[in-house]
Amino acid sequence: MTDLPQSLPQAWRPPMGWNSWDSYGTTLTEDELLANARFMAEHLKNAGWDTLVIDIDWYDPTARAHGYNDNAPLILDEYGRQLPDPVRFPSAAGGKGFGPLAAAVHELGLKLGMHMMRGIPRIAVDKNLPVYGTNYTAKDVADLDHVCKWNPDNYGLNQSHPGAQAWYDAQLDLFASWGLDFLKVDDMQTPFHSDEIAAYHRAIAKAEAKYGRSIDLSLSPGGWVATSYVDFLRENAQMWRISDDLWDRWEDIYQQFARLARWAPFQTTGHWADADMVPFGHIGLRAERGDDRQSRLTLDEQKTLLALWCMGRSPLMVGGDLPTSNSDAIALLQNPALREVLAGSTNNRETVRERIFGKWWDESTYRGEFIVWSADAADWADGTRSAHHGGHYAALFWTGSDTYEIGRNIQLQSIVGLDARNDDWTLSDLYADAPGESADVRLEGVGADRVITGTIPPHGVLWVALDRR
């Protein structure tokens, strides 16, 4: 697999990939990863999906569903660096790490990533293992006062000690030698560990320079992450979460409307605020939360999630086991509009947000929120011509549990601009070929009086492109 041309910035569009967390939690195996990789290559790569991420505890031979293990016998090398469990990942035996697996994924034209925790393994500190390339030991560089509140594997690192940077440098050198393309690093933002983030970024930069390939950095989790950090985040990462874990509940999706509206003005090429997982398809096989199931989200809720993430230009990381996911979920992921809007839209913004009541004076008759997003169609950073060059995108969302008749409140000129309101515009449904009922969405009126109207299903969306004839 060849790297992107140097003229293209790293993560030039929001990444689109698969992550094992929603389906396998801490227990993914090599065979399961490869099954998802082959499915992605055959069914989803042409739609823009190209990355697979092994989530947490791939180095714990006692990993189990629904939680983490205290005092787990993590597999480490002589310098305390994590190695894959060779029982779950047989190709890693003999110190090969994820090198053979990365090579197999690259052969499919895809990228491989993995999850990592902030800090240094407790076992390395307990054994006082040496820090590679230095005279320091793990006890010298550990910070026992800044440890993760929800995972027991690691201590923090004392970034005022020079050995702390050396520890990350050695760890990233190992990971880069395996040929990894993507790292999801956890326990970085809640609370916000700026020194650790900067140290990790420096270590990645050294590894990229040495091995001649880029490694995207994704930071987690994202509870209460303030937009005031945006300049620092752009300097140090390609992705950063803006929420805690999202699962297949409407309440979780609803919370992301406000977060993405807050972050959308800050999205910029190469650096993306991340609204978290896409919990579609077959999830919960051996996951942290819930039982084995197809996603509990309705088809309309799934369409809403995808349209909102794309209009907000969030990365897309689907969580369902792809080979065993239902056909509707796969069909939604194959929609070319996902990559089109992620890669080729600008000026993405929420333009309308109104609470709707059965009787406007009676709070007890509250029905839901009507929310509108718009964006301008733009050519892609890789030179691809936009399918809607010179046009616009609009997403009309309804958060209520009944259907909503839009009426004549959304004027076409609010999407295309006052100067273009008299041009001859056509409307196309970006979900026209998606499973489910055909959308009721249309242009009505003439000239400057034209409106976008129709009927939105419960928790649903009308997602359209607008083009001049």
From TrEMBL:
Is Hydrolase set as a keyword in this record?
Answer: yes
Q: Which GO terms describe its molecular function?
A: alpha-galactosidase activity
Q: Which InterPro entries does this UniProt record tie to the protein?
A: Aldolase_TIM (IPR013785), GH (IPR017853), Glyco_hydro_27 (IPR002241)
Q: Give the CDD domains listed for this entry.
A: GH27 (cd14792)
Task: Return the similarity comment.
Answer: Belongs to the glycosyl hydrolase 27 family.
By what name is this protein known?
Alpha-galactosidase
Top-level enzyme category: hydrolase
Provide this UniProt record's keywords sorted from A to Z. Disulfide bond, Glycosidase, Hydrolase
- Superkingdom is Bacteria
Known EC number(s)? 3.2.1.22
What reactions does this protein catalyze?
Hydrolysis of terminal, non-reducing alpha-D-galactose residues in alpha-D-galactosides, including galactose oligosaccharides, galactomannans and galactolipids
UniProt-listed GO biological process terms: carbohydrate metabolic process
Organism equals Bifidobacterium longum
> What Pfam families would the database entry show?
Melibiase_2
